[in-house]
Design a protein that fits this description.
four-stranded antiparallel β-sheet; Transposase Inhibitor Protein From Tn5, Chain A, domain 1; 24% strand; 18 helices; alpha+beta
């Protein structure tokens, strides 16, 4: 067999070239005397590899997969945390603890487990490769929570950074319940569920224009007055804060306190409020669209306040139909219908905020976002279920779960930006991307094959699969410099 010149140059003493198909393969050979055949016999000692114009390419050694790590969801969370500024701020505020904090937030979002189980989840993900020396044991996490609670000025600084870019900040309260005996914030107080058990009030700030929860503060369970709002605004160093309440908040005293504190507010009035006019002008003042539905409005000045009145025609029809059905069933009377009919489909907002009615309406509707954030915090993240036994640890726990909630909204906002929220939930994204894994193969990292659905999702979210493996190299240098700097 005649070999091409570029192949024959590798055929030297002890090297044999064999052709298989269109490729050439090199083998180390020798000869030994065969006494039975009474002649030398060729012995193939070793396969050397494929002959190429640039040399002989050695074959990959066969080995075993030593482990696999869930990778895709970690890469996406890292990307969003970096792009949003959360990761740089976390590194700056907590140069020695940011890895534990970030890992805790990632893992709680992936699966809301109790502290005792987080280590097991950590070992399944690429975080355990990214941060090899990091312990996520219950004792380590307990120490972290205590440190965070005892150094609240640091997480207040971080939350201020997250909040300061928001133009409109909405503020609201919710109750967290516990039977712990050692958390001094626990007290009996008012809550929407009308539960008679010890509670902590959690105050949350939500940046309406950024669509992100940015600040959390824990308060004694009995405290729900204007002074808490005023103090929080001062602590967060904010200006454009709007207190958007529920219908039960209105009272002359509360409004007076808000006015005195200079806090902008939006308070929905109950349908029986004396501030609601008996009649409205036949001609409305304007109209705008909200969620593809026309909303008409009136705006009335009341001394230093404004009464914004909005009417949703579709809602008006539904309320009127429901009321008339109640009249038919003798649950309500015709007289009641004539007294209430001018209120059907209407929203009455009292405010000291003088702006375009459409802006005011959208700010009020954004209260639904903060209520949804409370729902995610309590139900999806299960962050209201805790067995912690100290106030400091509970405060650290609430702060880390705010970071988790922040990451949840980063994914949600990305889905909305790409018009994918109708097809995927945040949990769907995390589950699908968990299928993208890294294999530990003979000391080498191999990325798993991508199922088509995962590949399409990663492309739509603009996720570079090599992101963390690139950042891992720079992270190693960062940690080295951190340890060696005086």
């Amino acid at each position: 067999m005649k070999l091409p010149d570029w192949v024959s140059k590798y055929k030297t003493k002890g090297i044999e070239i064999r052709k298989r198909g269109n490729t050439y393969h090199a083998y180390r050979v020798t000869s030994r005397w065969n006494p039975q055949k009474k002649r030398p016999q060729k012995i193939t000692e070793e396969y050397l590899g494929v002959v190429t114009p640039s040399g002989i390419t050695k074959p990959r050694k066969r080995g075993m997969i030593r482990g696999d790590y869930e990778y895709g969801h970690i890469a996406l969370l890292w990307k969003l945390a970096e792009e949003s500024g959360l990761l740089p701020s976390l590194k700056e505020c907590y140069p020695f603890h940011w890895r534990e904090m970030l890992s805790f937030a990632f893992l709680r979002l992936i699966q809301p487990l109790p502290l005792k189980s987080i280590q097991h989840l950590h070992e399944k993900t690429y975080l355990s490769k990214l941060f090899r020396d990091l312990s996520m044991s219950p004792k380590s996490l307990s120490r972290l929570l205590l440190y965070l609670g005892e150094n609240s000025q640091l997480h207040e600084e971080l939350m201020r950074r997250l909040t300061r870019d928001g133009k409109y900040i909405i503020i609201d309260l919710t109750a967290l319940f516990s039977y712990s005996q050692n958390i001094i914030l626990l007290e009996n107080g008012y809550n929407k569920e009308h539960l008679n058990m010890p509670q902590i009030n959690m105050l949350l700030l939500f940046a309406s224009d950024l669509k992100l929860p940015t600040y959390v503060r824990l308060l004694p369970g009995s405290v729900r007055d204007v002074s808490t709002i005023k103090n929080t605004i001062k602590m967060a160093d904010l200006e454009n804060v709007f207190f958007v309440s529920d219908r039960g908040f209105y009272s002359a005293d509360n409004v007076k306190e808000l006015q005195k504190a200079g806090i902008s507010y939006l308070i929905p009035l109950k349908r029986n409020s004396t501030l609601i006019p008996k009649r409205l002008p036949a001609k409305f003042e304007g109209v705008f669209s909200f969620n593809e539905r026309p909303i008409i409005f009136w705006k009335k000045r009341k001394r230093s306040m404004f009464l914004y009145i909005f009417e949703d025609k579709a809602l008006k029809k539904d309320e009127e139909t429901s009321f008339l059905k109640a009249v038919e069933e003798n649950r309500k009377t015709a007289e009641m219908y004539y007294e209430e009919q001018h209120k059907f489909g209407k929203l009455f907002l009292l405010s000291n905020f003088d702006d375009e009615p459409e802006t005011v309406y959208k700010l009020y509707k954004d209260r639904e976002r903060i209520e949804y954030a409370f729902n995610v915090f309590k139900n999806l993240l299960e962050a209201d279920k805790s067995y912690l036994r100290s106030t400091e640890k509970f405060e650290g726990y609430a702060f880390l779960n705010l970071l988790c909630l922040y990451l949840y909204y980063l994914i949600l906002n990305k889905l909305k930006e790409k018009d994918l929220n109708g097809k995927y939930s945040v949990k769907d994204v995390i589950l699908l991307l968990s299928k993208l894994k890294i294999y530990d193969f003979e000391g080498e990292e191999l990325m798993s094959e991508l199922p088509k659905q995962v590949k399409v999702l990663a492309e739509k979210l603009e996720l570079n699969p090599d992101l963390l493996r690139i950042d891992r190299r720079s992270l190693g240098l960062y940690m080295f410099l951190l340890r060696t700097c005086p």
